Amino acid sequence: METLNKKDIENLLPHREPMLLIDKLINIKKLFSATAIVNVKKDSFFVQGHFPGQPVMPGVLIVEAFGQAAAALTAHGLDKETYENKLVYLMNVEKARFRNPVLPDCRLELYIEAVRSHGRVWKYKGEASVNNKKMADAVWSATIVDRK
Question: What is the pTM of this model?
Fold first, then answer.
């Protein structure tokens, strides 16, 4: 199975540090599924203020990481002409459940799957885990739009 490193992901997504959350995309099944790796570190940008003395990765950033992983999976699977000069925007989050806090100095794994696509609209589901323990899950939709 194919793997994308951070540089490969930067070639697909417009996100840059500190907002590029995913470090790697592994186990890629083209336009179907992949696992994103997020290395949650003690020096991650959100640690200082969320929450001082007891840092936790914000749930909204877990959802953002899900979205980035899905966008990278989709961009990687489409032919370059189709994806060139496009962006992927989050449209909605139908369900998001946060089961356990994600603490710094862990490897957060996000298994994502494309549920369906209709034109430029895609629906995904994902599950986040640390050491095989479920931390969160979500269902969301995104759309591919032209860059302005």
Answer: 0.95
